[in-house]
From TrEMBL:
Domain of life according to the entry: Bacteria
Ranges for domain HTH lysR-type: 7-64
Database matches in InterPro entries: LysR_HTH_N, LysR_subst-bd, WH-like_DNA-bd_sf, WH_DNA-bd_sf
Name of the protein in question: LysR family transcriptional regulator
Keyword terms of this UniProt record: DNA-binding, Transcription, Transcription regulation
Gene3D superfamilies named among the record's database cross-references: Periplasmic binding protein-like II, Winged helix-like DNA-binding domain superfamily/Winged helix DNA-binding domain
Family: Belongs to the LysR transcriptional regulatory family.
Length: 314
């Protein structure tokens, strides 16, 4: 049987998310996709089936009559797929008892430990392996089938992966207490930050990619003062006086609170970012992987920040 006009399950699921939210951008946000990316997926769906599925207006997105029929059929298809997936999972009990997780360093060091402790209480017979790297290596591990679930912090989503936002984080500028920026009375402007040589994570790191992307409008980023492959290594270099760095608030909070680092206020650039779970498109996590995803999503933790009174700005 050749099904030349049948959309894949992930596209049908996306369609139902658009219907539920009434918005392309809201449906995309839940998957870590931009509004243009969702629009492109919808256009591809419409080309495949051969008719318009949605009408778009300032008030949101609505189904066409043909689109309403497609959505109704999609619900049945997805329900049947859930039954099929559950049946396959029951036959793969030996594999489901092993959970392979890959994560970028910020998530691996500061969020996953708490989630895995809770997971261990509900799945005591599940053997969990965690591989920490950067966002690029994490995505590659999931795409290669070497990890059942991944967690990334970079802004890009490689083709072949689906994603869901699990937390938000903020990148912050930190320096050693003896650095001149630790005593300045005004914020560091985005242009100045873009023109300053920093202690950086390596290329491929989600932190490095997010920072470079955010500073691009303010000029070509300067060459790194120093490149280090771990967040702890960057922190140690900054504490030793190497120079400023931009790291996750989650990674530096304790050092700032203890006085080993000083957080420097910045102005003119948004360094908030999303942390996302990723898996192979069309292979929604099941078993312990699904439960880990559920643990990660509801709380949506935000990176902790120092009270405003700590900032050296007057």
């Amino acid at each position: 049987m050749t099904l030349t006009r049948v959309p894949d399950l992930d596209t049908l699921s996306l369609l139902l998310e658009i219907v539920a939210s009434g918005s392309l951008s809201k449906a995309g946000a839940s998957r870590g996709l931009s509004q243009p990316a969702v629009s492109a997926r919808v256009r591809g769906l419409e080309r495949l089936v051969g008719f318009a599925v949605l009408t778009r207006s300032a008030r949101g997105s609505n189904l066409t009559p043909n689109g309403a029929l497609l959505a109704e059929w999609a619900r049945g298809v997805l329900a049947a797929a859930d039954v099929l997936e559950a049946g396959i999972a029951s036959l793969r009990g030996d594999r489901i008892a092993r959970l392979r997780v890959a994560a970028s360093l910020t998530v691996a060091e500061h969020l996953l430990p708490g989630w895995l402790v809770v997971l261990a209480a509900t799945h005591p017979d599940t053997a969990v392996s965690l591989t920490a790297g950067n966002s690029d290596t994490t995505a590659a591990a999931v795409l290669a089938g070497d990890a059942d679930l991944g967690f990334i912090e970079g802004p890009d989503l490689p083709s072949g992966l689906s994603a869901q936002v699990v937390a938000t984080d903020r990148l912050v500028v930190v320096v050693a207490p003896a650095h001149p920026w630790a005593h300045r009375r005004r914020s560091v402007e985005a242009e100045e930050l873009a023109g300053t040589r920093l202690v950086h994570r390596e290329a491929g790191s989600g932190t490095r990619t997010a920072l470079d992307r955010a500073l691009t409008p303010f000029g070509t980023p300067t060459q790194p003062l120093l490149e280090v492959s771990t967040s702890s290594g960057v922190r140690s270099a900054v504490i030793a006086g190497a120079g400023p760095a931009v790291l996750s608030d989650l990674a530096v909070h304790d050092d700032v609170a203890a006085g080993r680092l000083v957080q420097v206020p910045i102005h003119g650039v948004d360094l908030d970012r999303s942390l996302r779970a990723v898996w192979l498109t069309g292979q929604r996590p099941v078993g312990p992987a699904e439960d880990l995803l559920r643990l990660a999503v509801p709380e949506r933790p935000r990176a902790r920040r120092l009270p405003r009174s700590r900032a050296r700005v007057r």
